[in-house]
Design a protein that fits this description.
Number of domains: 2
Order of helices and strands: HHHHHHHHH
Radius of gyration: 21 Å
Strand content: under 5%
Number of strands: 0
Largest sheet: none
Distance between the termini: 43 Å
């Protein structure tokens, strides 16, 4: 922790700065309030995401009716392309896996991409944004708008779109990854390097799926 007055490093449990003597109890209280608020927002986001992601029947239809066919087409293309790239990059190891394992891995890519989209929707609900069904989407133009979002620096996205979301996304993709690893004994024999690269790939899928929702939001206005 640092003193707000002189900027010197101070112990977390200090009430006064050892360098300038400034009282810091107020700063500590404010920092705790900010942290508590961030945790509360993150928890609410996770709860809403789970509600959407696990919904079934009529409730599921209600959420799906707020989406566009073009969004799901883009999600399908993203997940399939990234899956194929991953398989090609690690073909020497993955070609030794049973067909069922490869199919499961393909599903994991798909679930993470669509999960990113549902994270966007969960956030939109919490922000009380307008969620009418998108209209008049030209797929090629939509794809270009999504690609333009990819060109922005991740830090910009984090500041603008993703506050309090990274921890929830991490919980989700770690869950999907662990399920994949436990799906067959042969998966556990994969080198750690491949598993680490898979972690990165799945988080990217979540982020890209999230940006599908961001791009689609322009057609809701």
């Amino acid at each position: 922790m640092y003193c707000n007055k002189c900027g010197k490093s101070i112990d977390e449990d200090s009430n006064f700065c050892n360098s300038c003597g400034a009282e810091i109890s107020t700063s500590k209280t404010n920092n705790k309030e900010v942290k508590d608020s961030e945790e509360n927002t993150s928890n609410r986001l996770w709860d809403k995401f789970v509600e959407i992601y696990d919904s079934k029947g009529e409730e599921r239809k209600r959420y799906e009716n707020l989406t566009s066919d073009e969004a799901w087409e883009l999600i399908s293309r993203i997940s399939n392309n990234k899956f194929e790239d991953f398989i090609q990059e690690h073909k020497d190891q993955l070609n030794k896996q049973p067909y069922k394992v490869i199919e499961t891995l393909k599903n994991v890519f798909s679930w993470c991409t669509s999960g990113g989209y549902w994270f966007w929707m969960a956030q939109a609900f919490l922000r009380e944004e307008k969620l009418n069904k998108p209209k008049n989407i030209a797929l090629n133009k939509y794809i270009k708008e999504w690609q333009a979002l990819l060109e922005k620096d991740f830090k910009e996205h984090k500041k603008e779109f993703l506050p309090n979301m990274e921890s929830s996304m991490s919980i989700f993709f770690e869950h999907e990854l662990n399920n994949f690893i436990e799906s067959a004994e042969s998966v556990k024999d994969l080198p750690n390097e491949i598993i680490e690269q898979l972690k990165i790939a799945l988080f990217i899928q979540l982020f890209w799926g999230y940006l599908v929702g961001v791009a689609e939001a322009e057609y809701r206005k």
